[in-house]
Amino acid sequence: MDLENQKRVLALTEEHGAENIVVLLGASEGEASGLAAETVTNGDPTFAGPLTGVQLGLSVFHVCEEEIKSEVDPAVYDEQCGMMEMVMDIDDIAGEMSSIRADFCKYL
C-alpha cells in the first residue's frame, strides 16, 4: 500500500472512527493483498509509511471474497471483476485475508 493511500486510510479512520471503516482490496495476488491488509490492521510492515506502528485493527476484505461478492449485483460483479477472477488464485487470497483478519482485526 503506497504512502498516499496510508495517509488517506489514517485520515478517514481519525475522522470516522476505526469501527466505521471497512477496507476493500483488489490486488491480484494473495501476498500483495496480505501486505496491504496487514498495513491497515497491524501497521506498515515495511516501516516506511504513516501507518508504521499504528495498529488500526480495521475490517479488511478482498473484493473476490464471498462475503463481499455476495453483496454485489452479480451483473456488476461479473462486468467489473469476472475476467480478473478467472486468473486469480481465489483460495490463496481468501486464506491470506482470513488469516490477517483472525490475527489483527478488531472490528468484524
Describe this protein's structure.
This protein is mainly alpha-helical and 108 residues long. It has one domain (3-104). Helix content is 54%, strand content 7%. The protein is built from five helices and two strands, in the order αβαβααα. A two-stranded parallel ribbon has the order 1-2. Helix 2 links the parallel strand 1 (22-25) and strand 2.
Ordered list of secondary-structure elements with their pairings:
Blueprint: H1 3-16, E1 22-25, H2 30-42, E2 59-62, H3 66-69, H4 74-85, H5 90-104
Parallel strand pairs: 1-2
Helix pairs in contact: 2-5
Taking all Cα atoms into account, the compactness measure Rg is 14 Å
Helix content: 40-55%
Instruction: Output the helix-strand order.
Output: HEHEHHH
Read across the widest sheet, the strand sequence of neighbours is 1-2
Q: Compute the separation of the termini in Å.
A: 21 Å
Gross morphology: globular
Summarize the structure in short.
With 108 residues, the protein is mainly alpha-helical.
Task: Give me some keywords for this one.
single chain; 108 residues; 5 helices
